[in-house]
Automatic annotation (TrEMBL):
Protein name: NADP oxidoreductase
Database matches in InterPro entries: NAD(P)-bd_dom_sf, P5C_Rdtase_cat_N, STEAP_metalloreductase
GO molecular function: oxidoreductase activity
Residues annotated as domain Pyrroline-5-carboxylate reductase catalytic N-terminal: 4-92
Entry annotated with the keyword Phosphoprotein: no
Organism (species): Cryobacterium zongtaii
Length: 219
């Protein structure tokens, strides 16, 4: 039985916890405010779920989902995440996160920053371009016509294969961009960010993506 450790229980984290339980995964969910604040969510999720501290969620997870604001990644439990497969859901919002030079200059991506912080982990980008509410409504069985697709990126092919299988369990096809440095193709304001697309449409969208610096500037 695979256990999902979830660090961050906001809109995306709570929805992924619901998907995990609904698809037969055990879930250990955590946030920055402590397990007592998650009693309602855990009661909703049932016996497959429990609340914990972030370090405990990281230690327990066969897969660990990091879904906290980018400015808070320095608070992650680094020892417990060493050697783990870590899924990064983050997007960069300067008004929330402050300006980060490597992202402003587009010399790195959010997932690469996390990988730099966790050199012994295998980071895979996923779930960053779907609205949280759609996570539990848009999934369909494998082979369904026009099944929604989601993008992943990661430097480790085996880790990407594991996340592809997770997405399939959750009801989504996968568009695999390859290494983490290709993750910019699905960052905010790119064509694939947000809308529901099947695999063909999403491949077209990520192929059409351009860098922020190349986007027309508003007058």
């Amino acid at each position: 039985m695979t256990t999902l450790g979830i660090i961050g229980a906001g809109h995306i984290g709570s929805q992924l916890a619901r998907l995990g339980v609904a698809n037969g995964y055990d879930v250990v969910v955590s946030n920055s405010r402590g397990p007592a604040t998650l009693e309602g969510l855990v009661a909703e999720l049932g016996p497959r779920a429990r609340a914990a501290l972030p370090a405990e969620a990281a230690a327990a997870g066969d897969l660990v989902i990091v879904t906290i604001p980018l400015h808070a990644i320095d608070t992650l439990p680094l020892p417990e995440l060493a050697g783990k497969l870590v899924i990064d859901t983050n997007n960069y919002y300067p008004q929330r996160d402050g300006n980060i030079v490597a992202l402003d200059e587009e010399t790195s991506t959010t997932a690469e920053l996390l990988q730099d912080l966790l050199p012994d982990a295998r980071v895979v980008k996923a779930f960053n371009h779907i609205y949280a509410a759609d996570l539990t409504t848009d999934g369909q069985p494998a082979g369904s016509a026009n099944r929604r697709a989601l993008v992943i990126a990661g430097n480790d092919p085996e880790a990407r294969a594991v996340v592809t299988a997770l997405l399939d369990d959750f009801g989504f096809d996968t568009v695999d961009l390859g290494p983490l440095n290709e993750g910019w193709r699905i960052q905010r304001d790119t064509p694939g960010y947000g809308p529901r697309m099947d695999e063909f449409e999403l491949r077209e969208a990520v192929s059409a993506a351009i860098r922020y610096r190349d986007m027309p500037q508003a007058v």
